[in-house]
Amino acid sequence: MNDLGAPGEAYSDDLILAGIGRFLDDFDPPPGDLVQRVQFALALEDLDVEVARWERLDNLAGVRGGGTGTITFTVSDLTVMINLTKMGKLHRIDGWLVPAGQYGVEVRVAEHGTSSTTADEGGRFVLDNVPRGTTQILVHLGDVTCRRTVVTPTVVL
């Protein structure tokens, strides 16, 4: 007898699905830090944010591997392009915002806190000494009275 029942016995949907579930758990388990990554992505102080979407990813930058590369994110009227450069155990993020403007830019790294800068008139910004880990970039548009925040999906540096 096996986990699906005795030979010749009709297999129920529940038994078949349970067997598939065990197979997936054994051969393709979820990442060990999945819960922490989801909690990090959801733990924004200001939940009134717009989430940008991945537009383009060159050389698998920052996604479980490559030391350098470019990622582009978009949301309705904003494009955020970042170039990641690995510098030892840290990273440098060079970024550009379109349309250009002096917007606040913040990088969040799980278990390392945040750092921020302001993009110049041309929309360019630099964030140095960004530690490894699950990372999100927030762009703050407008002033305090009419502030809008855009957040990128998480990137694992």
Strands, helices and their partners?
Elements: H1 13-27, H2 34-42, E1 49-51, E2 53-57, E3 68-75, E4 78-87, E5 90-98, E6 104-109, E7 113-118, E8 124-131, E9 134-141, E10 148-151, E11 155-156
Parallel strand pairs: 1-10
Antiparallel strand pairs: 2-3, 3-4, 4-5, 5-8, 6-7, 6-9, 9-10, 9-11
Characterize the structure shown:
It comes from Amycolatopsis pretoriensis. This is Carboxypeptidase regulatory-like domain-containing protein. The structure is a single chain. Mean pLDDT is 80; it is low at 60-65. The chain is 15% helix and 44% strand. The longest helix has 15 residues, at 13-27. The chain is built from 2 helices and 11 strands. It starts with 12 loop residues before the first helix and ends with a strand. A hairpin with a 3-residue loop joins strand 6 and strand 7. The chain folds into 2 domains: 1-30, no CATH class; 34-156, Sandwich (Immunoglobulin-like). It has helices at 13-27, 34-42, and strands spanning 49-51, 53-57, 68-75, 78-87, 90-98, 104-109, 113-118, 124-131, 134-141, 148-151, 155-156. It is α+β, with helices and mostly antiparallel strands and 157 residues long. Strands 1, 6, 7, 9, 10 and 11 form a 6-stranded mixed β-sheet that branches. A 5-stranded antiparallel β-sheet has the order 2-3-4-5-8, with no helix packed on it. It is elongated, with a radius of gyration of 21 Å.
